[in-house]
Design brief:
Layout: H1 2-16, H2 25-34, H3 40-52, H4 57-99, H5 104-131, H6 135-150, H7 155-171
Length: 176
């Protein structure tokens, strides 16, 4: 029964917390008060830890809260249920977008969003690049850039290659 409650509570959080991970906090404090799965002090610790770990704060807190409540299965259920509403909404929007793709207003919005998204990603990439320069990374970046120009493949292929090389290099501590 705890798993069903976990699913429903975190699905509710995912469905109604708009504005990012910190928008989940009132819901999480409500769970601490009503369900008693964790204390407010433990929630504060979870938020602090979630803020310094990679990934969205709301998802990280859901993972920690689920683990605290019901172990590994609880963390999987809480994490899945908190992202499930967004996943469903994106699928619905993508289907609706397909129907309205020839609408001039939809075209205008998409026309604006594409370069905006690229600019935001580029800004994050430049910031990460500047703050994490190392020889191994430069060689990997240069090699994959040249390969992507000479060998036309899906960008996910190069992403996968870089992830695999990075994991292997990190395992053998080759990144310096």
């Amino acid at each position: 029964m705890i798993y069903v409650k976990l699913f429903l509570e975190f699905f509710h959080i995912g469905l109604f917390s708009f504005g990012g991970g910190y928008a989940t906090l009132p819901f999480l404090y409500h769970i601490a008060d009503t369900q008693k799965w964790y204390t407010t002090k433990q929630l504060t610790d979870m938020i602090a830890l979630s803020s310094i770990t990679p990934g969205p704060v709301g998802v990280n807190v859901a993972t920690f809260a689920g683990f605290k409540t019901a172990g590994i299965l609880g963390s999987l259920i809480a994490t899945t249920s908190v992202i499930l509403p967004s996943f469903i909404i994106v699928i619905i929007i993508s289907k609706l977008l397909e129907q309205f793709k020839h609408n001039k207003y939809v075209k205008s919005v998409i026309y604006i969003l594409k370069p905006t998204g690229c600019g935001l990603l580029a800004a994050v990439g430049v910031d990460m690049f500047i703050n994490n320069i190392n020889l191994f990374g430069m060689v990997l970046l240069t090699g994959l850039f040249i390969a992507s120009i000479t060998e036309k493949r899906d960008p996910l292929f190069y992403l996968g290659v870089s992830a695999l090389v990075g994991l292997i290099a990190g395992f053998f501590n080759l990144t310096g």
